[in-house]
Amino acid sequence: MSTINTPPAYKQAPWRRQLQIIGAFMLVLVIVATIAGLYLSISGRAAAAGRRIQQLEMRAKTLNLEINDLRTHLALISSSISLNDRIDSLNMQTLDPHSAIYLEVPGYSPDLRKEIDRAPEPEAPKAILLPEYTRSLWDWLREKIWTINPNPLQNTNEVLP
Amino acid sequence: MKTHKGRILFICIIATVFAVAICVQFIRIQNMDVAQQILEDSKAYQGVTRLVYPNRGNIYDAKGRLLAGNETTYEVGLDLNAILKSQRTTVAKAVSDVLGMDYDQVLAYTEITPGNGNPFYIQLDGFVSPEKIMQFEALVKEYKEMKVGRNEIRPRLNGLMWTPHNKRSYPEGTTGSNVLGFYKYLDRTQGMGYFGVEETYNNLLAGTPQMVYTAFDPQKLSMLDEIPPGADLELTFNREIQAMAEQELDDAIEWSGAKGGSILIYNPKNGEIIAMANTPRLDPNEYWNYAELFPNPEPFNPTISKTYEPGSVFKAITVAIALDSGAVDLDTVYSDDGSYEIGGVTIRNWDFGAYGDVDMTDCMRWSLNTCLAWMAEEIGPDNFYAYLKAFGFDRNTGIDLGGETHWPLKLPGASNWYPIDLATNAFGQGISVTPIQMAMTVGAIANEGKMYVPHIVKAVIIDGKRYEVEPVLAGTPISAETASKVTDMLTETLMDESYEKANIHGYTFAGKTGTGQIPTEYGYTNPLTNASFVGWGPSEDPQVLVYVWMQEPTLDIWGSQIAAPVFSRIVEKLVVLMDIPPDNIRLSNQAPDQVMNIGE
After folding, report:
1. How far apart are CA B83 and CA B106, in angstroms?
2. From A55, which residue of chain B is nearest by alpha-carbon distance?
3. How far apart are CA B274 and CA B439, in angstroms?
4. Is residue B271 domain-shared with residue B383, that is, in the same domain?
5. Where residue B28 falls among pLDDT bands split at 50, 70, 90?
6. Among A153, B22, B304, B377, which residue's Cβ finds the most Cβ atoms within 10 Å?
7. pLDDT at residue A111 in the model
8. Which residues, numbered 98 to 137 in chain B, qualify as contacts with chain A under a Cβ-Cβ cut-off of 8 Å?
9. Pair (B433, B465) in one structural domain
10. Least CB–CB distance from B598: residue in A84, A101, A134
């Protein structure tokens, strides 16, 4: 059996072909532009976040200095020297030990100590850049796929009857 | 058509060769030696690596009150690149007005062209107060709001920079400075602590400096640089008791005409230092006065660094050894004829008197040198010095303060030891001690024979976590029974009329006076003495031990006249500050365990 190569009965009109080529090109262009735009947007936000980190670092340093300064200032105005000056200016006198009497006060403990007032130290440096700025589109897509919840009801806090 | 294809092929080949050549050139350039150097150099423009010093840790007293902290100060300098030519005089005038610097000198700085060996930045002052910075800020604001004409130039302070940083601060000034030491904050990179807690715990307080890289590219910044600050220290020291002890010491020096003095308040149950008052005292905020205040060889903290012959306070140790070793008992009788001969030397009593038949309590009551010399012979030299070593007189106490010292104990068999030393050592002559040694050893008598290493740091706080410092037992040189006997004996003697000046209204304490002669190169020819007193109590359950040492008082030479009243005044205030109830409440069957004091 012999094969007969039959030429097509029609040919695409040139304008239609051009339109297809232009369409395909535009599609690629739009995709590239979209990715570029997305990349630009994320880069911009990452840069803004980085700048924010710099500002926060400066702010943290300033606040630390201010905390130290205020703590020392408080100690200065409540130091024994300052208190004695204030006692003198108020015409108060130191208690004569012979005139002290002792009374039992339920609930009072002479051992009560003022706890050292200090801010808790951070446990470890914390990343403040959201993962959206550091992961790739592929990572994001994979994460979204893996975290699709098959039964959304299981995650709700609603109490079912 | 054929020719056309050939041309296209030729152009493609040329383009490919050109592209390959470019790639080869890329690879070649990137692998050249100079390329590596360029790569390295470029890192300098990508970010900056700084050695960051953590904030120095704070020091608190036992009640959480700040004794050493940090306050903000500013470095002021000129960024020569940023100074506008037209504003040089404005900057120079502002600096001159606010910082009081020479106008011409500052103007000369502003005219320096940066680079080519010239600096880019000139530091004008490393420690400028916030008040002065506020003056600069006010000037900036004033210039900003100033109305200027079209052809006028608005004055600006561009290029004048101020950067905040920490400065060590001691809010209590001189209070407790001999214990705290000081930090040389003017040296911002190599600064370290000197003396006291600042020196001993320098590494903990300073923390660990870290190299921190900060990228200029904001996209490469993802973490906040957290440099853990240095550890905070919580001391056993009580600021109010310290201030009171220092006030009493200063008063005592004034009325007694003493050369100096020390007062040590110590917890014999765990070795905690509650207060340690000395003279002179340096304001650590102005540590540069150190050399003037402490000319060589004056020690920074005499309580731990200065030895002296204590005199009769040492008899408390000797009688404890005699009782513990079984050489004597409380009712052993010594017949005193006013002199005792040993090694060819005659020992006499302080008043050259003879007291007849006396028991051991009377020996202590009248502080008889003859009796103590006899007691030492009864103990025997080997036994006596073995006990002294057990008490720790041959070594430092191990207190956690820099600069502790001790006098080497002379022992039998050594070329510098003579039989007379046994007798004189028994009543505190020919042997030198530091007040901290005496407090620790007498602490064994006050604490059932158990002797604790004195310490000043109660807890270390690292990253918000508090680590308690456990007391360290230095030894148990005597039994609890002996300790109790000696405490009872010295409680009874303190009730005697001759100790009236040491009495404390409403409280029973044990104690012993001491008057130590001062040796010179010609013997004990100095007419002045060291007056001391050691006391502990309340006698049935001692919670505190007070050691008073007055150096060379001129009003009177006797410990009973100089040191005893100081002890009494301190303890009267101490029991109030420490919430120790008086005997009638404490010893009653229904003694309240929770009490407070109020003034009438």
Report:
1. 12
2. B224
3. 12
4. yes
5. confident
6. B304
7. 58
8. 130
9. yes
10. A101
**DSSP H or E stretch at residue A128:** none
Is the interface score ipTM higher than 0.90? no
Enumerate residues 14 to 33 of chain A having a beta carbon within 8 A of any beta carbon in chain B. none
Q: Which residue type does B102 have?
A: D
Going by C-alpha positions, the residue among B508, B528, B507, B504 that lies closest to residue B517 is B528
* Cα of B70 to nearest chain A Cα, Å: 6
Size of interface A-B (CB pairs under 8 A): 162
Taking an 8 Å cut-off on Cβ atoms, the answer to whether A116 and B165 are in contact is no
State which residue of chain B sits closest to A94, comparing Cα positions: B599
B466, closest residue in chain A (CA to CA): A116
| CA dist., res. B221 & res. B228, Å (int) | 19
Looking up residue B151, the CATH number of its domain turns out to be 3.90.1310.10
B449: left (phi over 0), alpha (psi -120 to 50) or beta: left
What pLDDT, in 10s, does the model give residues B224-243? 567 788 999 999 989 999 99
Spatial distance between the Cα atoms of B272 and B456, rounded to a whole number of angstroms: 6
Question: Does the CB of A43 have a partner CB in chain B at under 8 Å?
Answer: yes
Per-residue pLDDT of B247-291, as tens digits, reads 999 999 999 999 999 999 999 999 999 999 999 999 999 999 999
Q: Which amino acid is at A120?
A: P
Residue B343 has pLDDT above 90, yes or no: no
- Contact check, Cβ <8 Å, B239/A80: yes
Q: Is A151 on the interface with B (CB under 8 A)?
A: no
The residue written with tokens 């050549």 in the block is B21
User: Are both B516 and B549 inside the same structural domain?
Assistant: yes
Give me the phi and psi of B17, to 5 degrees please.
Answer: -60, -40
A93: closest CA of chain B, how far (Å): 11
Of A73, A80, A102, the CB nearest to B595: A102
Is B149 at the interface with chain A, CB within 8 A? no
How far apart (Å, rounded) are the C-alpha atoms in residues B1 and B12?
17
How far is B168 from chain A, CA to nearest CA, in Å? 10
**Residue B14 counted as domain residue:** no
The secondary structure element, H or E, covering residue B40 is helix B33-46
Q: Which domain holds residue B409?
A: 239-287+301-586
pLDDT digits (tens, 9 = 90+) for B49-62: 777 788 899 999 99
Are B165 and B265 in a shared domain? no
3-state SS class at B207: coil
Please count the structural domains in chain B: 2
Q: In chain B, which residues have their Cβ closer than 8 Å to the Cβ of A51?
A: 218
Are B507 and B520 members of one domain?
Answer: yes
Angle at B52 between CA B50 and CA B53, to 5 degrees: 150
For chain A, say whether B62 makes contact (Cβ under 8 Å).
yes
